[in-house]
């Protein structure tokens, strides 16, 4: 049992930090601009594809820097020439625009790289077991992912809390009009934040794309989960996103180990549930099987009962 | 803070369009349009009689009801739902389960009334889910509906006795128990059944926009605080609007069940939800007839253009983005924008500029098509080496010339189109100024 | 030029709408291929289409059917959606097509089966025949069996039986873990595995029986941890697509020491995604692999493999595509016409000598019985693995063969014949 717990904790940490890398940008963009960017997960996908393309030609390490940079620039272009224009049509239009982008990016990726997964592999120099615990390997690449995630987290903390632009961002989160009045160029801040958020998602793609699979469906698969993270954490809150990333990762990781169904529960009370028909289906479901549903249940309850999330900065 | 941002800056014309329809001449005009619509629908199967065309018209009818029900939320209520297909799908399942019971002899319900069963089932569900999700509008609402959609889709695989697992639930619409002297074995009979239900639903949804509830939905959309001050609970109004939208989506689902004689869990997933969203937005959400246009146009694209090119999803996406950025009122908005000019009989003044824009526009479009088709051919076709044929011209996709031609068409067309667009703008400005001066 | 080409497109679109009379050229028999050609599974549909076109071309080159008629595959895009495929079916009927080949997505197969059965009842003069080349839900040839449906792939229970049969040759395997996708298919794999392991290897202990959400899991590490601690030596999974490759990738990266018995590891993109870490550990159960022709010295099949690669630059995955088309052609010749009803009766009980043994279309339930093989992923050049897959430098080595009749499972099908 202890090995299950230790490995599950490590897996939680890796998956959680990956989620945070994705959700931090999204939550910042929401906090600043009040825009829920549906295309955010597309930046994650583009990061993986850019990294694949760059790593074929010049290797993995340059890709680690170039791919997020490329995605970041793309993000800035999207904000400057797309979102800013659509902003005039209102919030629903903004939502629809980012949703359309999500759709379009997917099709463009298929157009360029095809529908099959591309052969984006873990670099050879990181492809060995780092240590072995209870007979199971912990791969070096997982260690590398942890390292990058933690470095990113520290870097982001320093930027937000120790730099001038970080202070402007913090102020814009709470008092956007005031910041504008003080003479800061808020639209430019928006553009940079949008670009930086996209770049972070791109970075998650670079280190996640080869660990998982780089294929056109990857944005669709991760997109909804990232929304759940920022809703549960509180839209606009970085700390909230951090906590809820780890929380949701843990929830999904540990749920795997629970083979416990309603029928088992009723069994404790001596109730023999029927195994036929609709109720038979329901009592048969094990907790582990609901793994895909748990996050959405959380999100719905959160939105109903505590819409500002765990650490929300503002409500309504 | 979040709620009242919905659609606040978008200009809402739906209300005006509806209200202006009550003078004698206007009623005659509306009646004329509707009568024309009905006559065309009745005649369609006589003109296009292939089975494929029949399936397409049936699908269009279903999509029209579904899109209008979606617009009860988005256009009239300002509620952007990412899970409206839940009610479409559940309505379908409700109807098909009833049909199965009829097949097994456990129930006697006229085949014609099955959509109603779907609608009622969906409405009950819609009331419950609407009560939960409409407390807030805008982003929280969008996310809750998305979450509910994902939840139901995930649970559909866990509950095979209701959803039929992967294969779904199938029934046989060819029963003896019918109201009219048809058995609904042939798709032409189903076409007329769908037609009847479609016109009933369209009329009902149109009349609903004029009831106090419809008006209150508009008011809550535009400013929920003000609506609250005059004594209407926005939550209550939205819940009712949501329930009604679910009801009509359920009717569409019931029609689906009759038409395809089977319902699978894919009907309530994210895909049909986003499909209907894109359909409605492209058609235009600020006019009642917008979603009808969108449903007809996009269904046509999905079914016909997808047989001609495999890149249709990309064209669909490009079109959606263009609509959002330059024509947020959709196709209906583009048409209705011309109404004042039409009335002032000034169309001739802007048509030349349109023609001038049309040519470079087509050139630009041809450039896009050439480039997209080349790339698709190289990355996705069965044999990239085989010659690619675009509109009757065959060539090798790997050659340099087609690329050059595509880029040239795009570049030149784009540049000229930009110039022409300026001319269109100019023509518009002059005409509008003239109209203003004359006070027409 | 522009107006002419525009007119052509418009004419094409109108033709789709107007075409109601079956415009059948007398010298070709059209066969609809309804599988995903756009969307996320287009690669699989595309690959299948190539296989069937290739098989049809070879029949045509040998003189066609019914004394010179040519077979023509007409692709239709199912988008793996039942609704979409039903519309495409109508299009196919418009073109006078009477044969449908389909395989991807049990939902689509189920919809087509239902629709074709109803259509044949309602329009007895315009009947259709469905050949299912890949949907493995046992029910299609068991309780839901239908006269108008034939299946040319082994279904879930048959594949599991082959795995269990193979395990009788592996007394060293004592502990098996089952992990499958959480939907009807995954559950039927698990149920069949439990049943047949208990029958054929009662000493094997099933140490885990997991279901995971389909297509949702990005990181399988938590499951791997669980499998690791169960002490399993072998793992049976029906997973396909990313659920299969991600599972195996997570397992190999954790250094999991066990064998993976899969249905679809050899599927399109599988070897590429699994990578070298899978060598010697990953097994598949199929009717074909590209090392068989070397092992059984079958020159004809080797020539087929090379010709396919020559033509499309890709590897061949199936033998069943050839068997399907050959049987269909033979049945037409035997029936003496191309009427689906007569051809269906001709297909019932048909026997051919396949490349690797006798192959029979069982009359009772329309399920094809063909020799099945367990094969293991190996380095190219090892043993009989002369050819690799997807340019990975890895190929297959056959470790076990089950003859056609031994793959058979009793079917409760009570076929109603017109």
Describe the structure.
- The complex is a heterotrimer of chains A (316), B (440) and C (418).
- By secondary structure, chain A is an all-alpha fold.
- The mean pLDDT of chain A is 83.
- In chain A, a hairpin with a 2-residue loop joins strand 1 (129-133) and strand 2.
- Chain A has a domain at 14-219.
- Chain A starts with a helix and ends in an 11-residue tail after the last helix.
- Chain A has helices at residues 2-33, 40-58, 60-86, 91-113, 140-162, 164-174, 176-181, 186-209, 218-233, 238-255, 262-268, 277-284, 294-305; strands spanning 129-133, 136-139.
- Chain B has two domains: 3-311, ABC transporter involved in vitamin B12 uptake, BtuC (Orthogonal Bundle); 339-438, no CATH class.
- With 440 residues, chain B is mainly α.
- Chain B has helices at 14-19, 24-47, 51-77, 85-103, 114-133, 138-158, 160-163, 187-208, 212-222, 224-229, 234-260, 270-283, 290-308, 312-326, 330-336, 339-343, 347-380, 400-438; strands spanning 169-170, 262-263, 388-390, 393-395.
- In chain B, the strands form two sheets. Chain B has a two-stranded antiparallel sheet.
- In chain B, a hairpin with a 2-residue loop joins strand 3 and strand 4 (393-395).
- Chain C is of the alpha/beta class.
- Chain C folds into two domains: 19-154 and 318-370, Rossmann fold, CATH 3.40.50; 157-286, Response regulator (Rossmann fold).
- Helix content of chain C is 39%, strand content 20%.
- Chain C contains 13 helices and 15 strands.
- In chain C, helix 2 packs across helix 12, helix 5 packs parallel to helix 6 (184-200) and helix 12 packs across helix 13 (340-347).
- At the A-B interface, helix 3, helix 4, helix 9, helix 12 and helix 13 of A face helix 6, helix 7, helix 12, helix 14 and helix 17 of B.
- Chain C: Keywords: Amino-acid transport, Signal, Transport.
- Chain C: It holds the Pfam family Peripla_BP_6.
- Chain C: It comes from Desulfatibacillum alkenivorans DSM 16219.
- Chain C: Residues 1-25 form the signal peptide.
CATH architecture group name of the largest domain in chain B: Orthogonal Bundle
Content of β-strand of chain B: under 5%
Q: How would you state the average pLDDT of chain B, rounded?
A: 85
What's the helix-strand series of chain B?
A: HHHHHHHEHHHHEHHHHHHEEH
Query: Count of DSSP E strands of chain A?
Result: 2
User: Residue share in helices of chain B?
Assistant: over 70%
Strands in their spatial order, largest beta sheet of chain B: 1-2
Note the overall shape of chain B. globular
- Identify low-pLDDT runs of chain B: 1-21
| C-alpha geometry of chain A | globular
Report the top-level CATH class of the largest domain in chain B.
Answer: Mainly Alpha
Pair with the biggest interface: A-B, 53 and 54 residues
**End-to-end CA span of chain A:** 45 Å
**Assembly state of the chains shown:** heterotrimer
Secondary-structure element series of chain A: HHHHEEHHHHHHHHH
Radius of gyration of chain A, taken over Cα atoms and rounded to an integer in Å: 21 Å
What class would the helix/strand composition of chain B place it in? mainly alpha
Strand order of the largest sheet of chain A: 1-2
What amount of the residues of chain A lies in strands?
Answer: under 5%
Number of helices of chain A: 13
């Amino acid at each position: 049992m202890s090995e299950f717990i230790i490995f599950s904790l490590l897996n939680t940490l890796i998956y959680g930090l990956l989620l945070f890398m994705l959700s931090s940008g999204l939550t910042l963009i929401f906090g600043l601009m009040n825009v829920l960017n549906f295309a955010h997960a597309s930046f994650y996908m583009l990061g993986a594809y850019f990294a694949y393309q760059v790593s074929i030609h010049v290797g993995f390490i340059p890709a680690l820097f170039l791919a997020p940079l490329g995605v970041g620039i793309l993000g800035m272009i999207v904000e400057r020439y797309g979102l800013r224009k659509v902003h005039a049509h209102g919030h629903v239009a903004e939502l629809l625009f980012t949703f359309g982008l999500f759709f379009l990016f997917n099709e463009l990726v298929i157009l360029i790289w095809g529908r099959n997964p591309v052969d984006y592999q873990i670099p050879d120099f990181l492809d060995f077991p780092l240590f072995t615990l209870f007979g199971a390997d912990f791969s070096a690449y997982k260690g590398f992912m942890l390292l990058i995630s933690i470095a990113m987290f520290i870097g982001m903390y320093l930027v937000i809390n120790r730099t001038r632009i970080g202070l402007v961002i913090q102020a814009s989160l709470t008092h956007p009009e005031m910041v504008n009045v003080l003479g800061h160029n808020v639209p430019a801040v928006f553009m940079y934040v949008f670009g930086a958020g996209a770049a972070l998602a791109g970075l998650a793609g670079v280190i996640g794309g080869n660990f998982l699979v780089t294929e056109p469906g990857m944005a669709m698969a991760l997109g909804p989960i990232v929304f759940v993270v920022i809703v549960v954490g509180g839209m606009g809150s970085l700390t909230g996103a951090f906590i809820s990333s780890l929380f949701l990762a843990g929830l999904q990781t540990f749920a795997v180990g629970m083979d416990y169904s309603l029928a088992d529960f009723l069994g404790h009370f001596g109730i023999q549930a029927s195994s036929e028909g609709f109720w038979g289906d329901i009592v048969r479901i094990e907790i582990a099987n609901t793994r895909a549903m748990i996050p959405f249940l959380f999100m719905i309850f959160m939105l109903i009962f505590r819409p500002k999330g765990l650490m929300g900065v503002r409500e309504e | 803070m979040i709620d009242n941002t919905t659609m606040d800056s978008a200009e809402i014309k739906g209300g005006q369009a509806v209200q202006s329809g009550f003078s004698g001449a206007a009623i005659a005009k509306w009646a004329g349009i509707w009568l024309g619509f009905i006559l065309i629908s009745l005649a369609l199967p006589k003109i296009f009689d292939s089975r494929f065309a029949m399936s397409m018209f049936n699908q269009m009818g279903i999509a029209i009801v579904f899109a209008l029900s979606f617009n009860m939320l988005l256009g009239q209520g300002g509620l952007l739902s990412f899970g409206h297909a839940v009610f479409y799908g559940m309505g379908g399942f409700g109807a098909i389960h009833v049909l199965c019971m009829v097949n097994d002899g456990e129930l006697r319900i006229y085949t014609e009334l099955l959509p109603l069963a779907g609608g009622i089932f969906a409405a009950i569900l819609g009331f419950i889910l609407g009560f939960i999700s409409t407390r807030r509008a805008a982003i929280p609402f969008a996310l809750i509906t998305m979450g509910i959609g994902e939840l139901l889709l995930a649970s559909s695989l866990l509950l095979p006795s209701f959803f039929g697992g992967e294969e779904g639930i199938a029934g046989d619409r060819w029963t003896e128990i019918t109201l009219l002297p048809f058995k609904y074995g042939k798709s032409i009979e189903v076409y007329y059944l769908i037609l009847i239900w479609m016109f009933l639903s369209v009329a009902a949804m149109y009349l609903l926009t004029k009831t106090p509830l419809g008006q209150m939905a508009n008011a809550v959309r535009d400013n929920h605080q003000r609506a609250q001050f005059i004594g209407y609970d926005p939550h209550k109004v939205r819940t009712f609007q949501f329930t009604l939208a679910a009801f009509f989506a359920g009717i569409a689902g019931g029609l689906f069940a009759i038409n395809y004689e089977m319902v699978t869990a894919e009907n309530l997933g994210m895909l049909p939800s986003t499909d209907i969203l894109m359909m409605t937005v492209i058609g235009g959400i600020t006019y009642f007839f917008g979603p009808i246009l969108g449903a007809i146009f996009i269904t046509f694209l999905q079914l016909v253009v997808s047989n001609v090119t495999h890149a249709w999803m990309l064209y669909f996406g490009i079109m959606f983005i263009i609509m959002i950025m330059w024509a947020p009122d959709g196709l209906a908005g583009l048409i209705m924008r011309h109404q004042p000019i039409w009335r002032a009989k000034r169309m001739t003044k802007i048509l030349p500029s349109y023609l001038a824009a049309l040519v470079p526009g087509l050139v630009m479009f041809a450039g896009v098509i050439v480039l997209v088709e080349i790339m698709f051919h190289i990355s996705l076709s069965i044999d990239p080496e085989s010659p690619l044929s675009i509109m009757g011209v065959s060539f090798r996709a790997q050659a340099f010339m087609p690329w050059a031609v595509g880029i040239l068409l795009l570049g030149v067309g784009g540049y000229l189109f930009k110039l022409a667009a300026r001319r269109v703008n100019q023509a518009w400005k002059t005409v509008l100024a003239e109209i203003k001066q004359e006070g027409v | 030029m522009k107006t002419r080409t525009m007119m052509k497109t418009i004419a094409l679109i109108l033709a789709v709408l107007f075409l109601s009379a079956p415009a059948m050229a007398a010298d070709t028999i059209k066969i609809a291929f309804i599988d995903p050609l756009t969307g996320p599974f287009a690669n699989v549909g595309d690959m299948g289409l190539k296989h069937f076109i290739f098989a049809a071309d070879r029949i045509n080159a040998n003189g066609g059917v019914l004394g010179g008629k040519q077979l023509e595959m007409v692709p239709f895009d199912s988008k793996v959606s039942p609704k979409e495929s039903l519309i495409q079916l109508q299009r196919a009927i418009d073109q006078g097509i009477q044969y449908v080949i389909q395989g991807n997505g049990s939902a689509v197969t189920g919809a087509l089966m239902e629709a074709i059965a109803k259509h044949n009842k309602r329009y007895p003069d315009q009947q259709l025949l469905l050949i299912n080349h890949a949907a493995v839900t046992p029910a299609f040839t068991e309780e839901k069996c239908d006269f108008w449906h034939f299946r040319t792939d082994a279904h879930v229970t048959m594949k599991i039986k082959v795995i269990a049969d193979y395990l009788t040759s592996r007394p060293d395997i004592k502990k098996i873990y089952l992990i499958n996708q959480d939907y009807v298919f995954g559950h039927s794999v698990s149920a069949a595995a439990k049943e047949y392991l208990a029958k054929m290897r009662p000493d094997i202990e099933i140490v885990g029986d997991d279901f995971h959400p389909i297509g949702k899991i990005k990181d399988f590490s938590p499951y791997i941890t669980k499998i690791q601690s169960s002490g399993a030596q072998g793992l049976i999974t029906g997973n396909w697509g990313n659920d299969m490759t991600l599972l195996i990738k997570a397992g190999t990266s954790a250094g999991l020491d066990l064998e993976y018995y899969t249905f679809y590891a050899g599927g399109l993109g599988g070897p590429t995604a699994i990578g070298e870490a899978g060598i010697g550990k990953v097994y598949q159960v199929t009717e074909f692999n590209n090392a068989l022709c070397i092992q059984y010295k079958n020159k004809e099949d080797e020539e087929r493999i090379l010709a396919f690669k020559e033509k499309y630059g890709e590897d061949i995955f199936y033998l069943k595509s050839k068997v399907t088309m050959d049987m269909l052609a033979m049945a037409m010749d035997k029936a003496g016409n191309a009427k689906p009803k007569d051809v269906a009766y001709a297909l019932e009980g048909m026997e051919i000598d396949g490349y690797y043994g006798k192959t029979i279309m069982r009359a009772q339930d329309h399920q094809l019985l063909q020799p099945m093989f367990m094969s293991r992923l190996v380095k190219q050049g090892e043993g009989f693995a002369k050819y690799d897959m997807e340019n990975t430098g890895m190929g297959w080595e056959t470790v076990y063969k089950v003859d056609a009749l031994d793959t058979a499972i009793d079917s409760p099908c009570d076929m109603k014949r017109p």
